[in-house]
Amino acid sequence: MPIISTSGIDLHYERTGRGQTVLLLAGMASDSASWTPVVSELSKNAELIRMDNRCAGQTRPVPTDTSRSLMVDDVLALLDACDIEQTVLVGHSMGALIAWAVAAKAPDRIKAVIAASAPFTVDYARIDLFNTLARLRTNDNEADWFRLLFQFLFSASFFTDERSVVKAIEASMAYPFKQSADAFAKQCAALPSFLEPIDLPVELPFPALALTGANDKLFTPADLQKNYEAYSQVSLSVIENAAHSVHWENPIAFNQRVGTFLSELS
Known about the structure:
By secondary structure, the chain is α/β, with parallel strands linked by helices. The chain has helices spanning 36-42, 68-81, 94-105, 124-136, 142-153, 162-174, 181-190, 221-228, 246-249, 251-265; strands at 3-6, 9-16, 20-25, 46-51, 87-92, 110-116, 208-213, 234-239.
């Protein structure tokens, strides 16, 4: 099991495939397994590195202190440990926020950024939402809590088949590295650290792709259009039939957009 020790944690990661290096950064309440729907296809032409953020997956201890700056340093420490001079960063949601912060701190380490379902920084409304979700979660209501969380992750069509919803809830609850309520609360408590603007020049020194689900409620396509409109190097692409968890709901379209972008880099 690949592990590096950095800043008080043992950070777990996985490496798959061959080709240009692509580092995948998961979102809130997620870990390296969250990339499962797209790993097989993307690893055909790239070496994928999937890491477990602080307070998630197999990274230990859980829970632990976390913040944007700590997670940025974790990414850079992993690149150093793996002798990777430059990489493509692919982040989803909080992972995209981390990716942009890494790019601002160490642009020379970045070949390109692919940001899915997130702008550059978070806002108070999203912080309040996730803090509320943290307060609502108990060991006695996990099934209902996951059902509520799914409202912010998936399209309305996801809920038309109750059996599929129940199956997804059961799978989330049975996952052997399921994030604990305390660890989720720690991640939520770290969200204010994402409020501060990052120092990114309008003329980015690398190409970038922003992906959004047409049905995303957390960060709508209009939100992202406004966020990225001044950045000519950022190409915004809207994926139909998907909400916030765009790579789960429409992995085929996600793979096509990302695969095309990566091939153009090569």
